[in-house]
Amino acid sequence: MIELITVRAPEKPGIISAVLAALTDTFGAEEGELERRQLSGTEAADNEDVLFTAWEDGRLLSTIHLTVSRAHPGFGCLGGLVTLPAARGKGLAGRLFGQACSYYDDLGGGTLFLGTSNPMAARLYSKFGFTFITGTNIMVRTSAGSLFDFYREAYAPGQITYGPAGDFCRVPIVPLAAARGRDMLMDTNIGLISTDYVTQVSCTGLYPRLLRIMARGGIWCAALPTGALCALCTVQEQEDGASLDAFAYPGFEHTLPRLMEMACAGYRKLTARIADCDREKKALFASLGFEEKGPCLFTCRGLQIPCTLMTRE
Q: What is the pLDDT of residue 302?
């Protein structure tokens, strides 16, 4: 008999260990370690992490992971969907997926994001009301009515809060990265390019990119009362200084100078690579004391983008 068990991390460590083993076997050790961070309760102050699992005779058959922002439960993310090969074809993924969506709706609902490049999985998700965001592998289901309405509500003008990024950014980084902003090169430190030019393939993988930058520098963000991130600034330490970059949701570019000065504090030498087509961004860096040093290339996902190297000392 198949049993469905819901686990709120970090409860029931035995179940969590089985899930982590399945994720590691399916997606690799790195993915398993990233999930371990959430399921161990490290982010519990900022995010609620819930596992939906299916078992038979003490064996894990299938699982899916829901993450919901505690301060702003209107932002949620689904990931870690795994069905073991021997259990496929029984409809378990659909049952657990529906259970996760219902759990989120019972919290009050809002907007859920997930990422997939699997057409079969996308067909399943579409049955629950998920649709792709143009230019991405990210799917969304929103109680706002449409993606346009979600963005309009989430990014409504309000009192902006500035400060260091943290685990509260895990979910709201997704819609910010998927939005078509002013700049082609949104952030060279995290390899983020506008969806006008390349498909955004990451969803739940976006925040781990920020974690890697935090370990070697820092990240600053500007947030709205809705919980939406309207700008992000990253600084990555190098041997002789640090690399700086920043981007904003359209209409919130005015937040960047303050964020960038906060991020720059304590660094003697700063460098930036600005795409030659991003003229307004180049002017912004120049206004903050950066000088052009010459041409360079930024290579990412097979693209070689002509840039200008800018420095401030």
A: 83
Over residues 181-191, the pLDDT tens digits come to 899 999 999 99
Structure confidence at residue 261 as a pLDDT band (50, 70, 90): very high
Q: In sequence order, what are the beta bridge partners of 66?
A: 50, 78
Residue 28 pLDDT: 87
Query: What is the spatial distance between Cα 81 and Cα 72, in angstroms, rounded to a whole number?
Result: 24
**Chain Cα centroid distance, residue 49:** 15
CA gap 240, 157 in Å, rounded: 39
Reduced to 3 states (helix: H, G, I; strand: E, B; else coil), residue 128 is: coil
Q: CA dihedral defined by 82, 37, 57, 121, rounded to 10 degrees?
A: -10
CA distance 178 to 249: 10
CA 123 to chain CA centroid, Å, is 22
Q: What is d(CA 166, CA 182) in angstroms, rounded to the nearest whole number?
A: 25
Predicted pLDDT at 239: 81
Residue 241 has pLDDT above 90, yes or no: no
Strand partners, 220: 164, 233
For the chain, report the end-to-end CA distance as a whole number of angstroms.
Answer: 67
Residue that is written with structure tokens 């064996």 in the block: 59
pLDDT tens for residues 216-234? 889 999 999 999 999 999 9
* Helix axis angle, 29-39 to 13-27, nearest 10°: 150
Whole-angstrom distance, CA of residue 59 vs CA of residue 246: 46
Cβ atoms < 10 Å from Cβ of 168: 21
Say which residues have a Cβ less than 8 Å from residue 12's Cβ, sequence separation at least 6: 5
